[in-house]
Write a structure and sequence with these properties.
Helices cover 49% and strands 16% of the residues. The protein is of the alpha+beta class.
Length: 129
């Protein structure tokens, strides 16, 4: 028996007709979000859908974008400890590579950690109940 995920289905169902050619990415994203699968894969799927949507259909992805920004974040770790948590901020007209470069540059240029090596990772937010 397949479980139902109304919130996720409500976000993705309106995209199916517009992004029919990206049905695999939509289904992958649905499964990832429903199972709290790897958050980095969720972000990659989002950018794939965003790219495929084209400028005329990108406004339809705003609810999904808002959901992802509400539920995902970026952790910054160094020397085996958490240093900071950044909000996920997805910008219009940005691809995955640009997003990653912007985030890395922000951490590299705007902070001065003593850690020799920093690690950035996507993760699910710990939302207050």
């Amino acid at each position: 028996m397949q479980r139902s995920f109304p919130e996720i289905d409500d976000l993705l169902s309106p995209l199916a007709p517009v992004l029919a050619r990206e049905a695999d990415a939509l289904l992958d994203l649905r499964e990832l979000l429903a199972s709290r699968g790897h958050p980095g894969k969720c972000v990659r799927c989002f950018f794939k859908l965003f790219s495929a949507a084209g400028s005329e259909h990108r406004p339809q992805l705003k609810p999904l974008l808002a959901w992802m920004e509400k539920h995902l974040e970026i952790s910054v770790s160094g020397d085996g400890r958490l240093l900071e948590v950044l909000p996920l901020e997805l910008k219009p007209h940005e691809d995955l590579e640009s997003f990653c470069h912007r985030t890395i540059e922000s951490v590299r240029l705007d902070r001065s950690y003593r850690a020799k090596r920093l690690q950035l990772a996507f993760r699910y937010r710990q939302l207050a109940a």
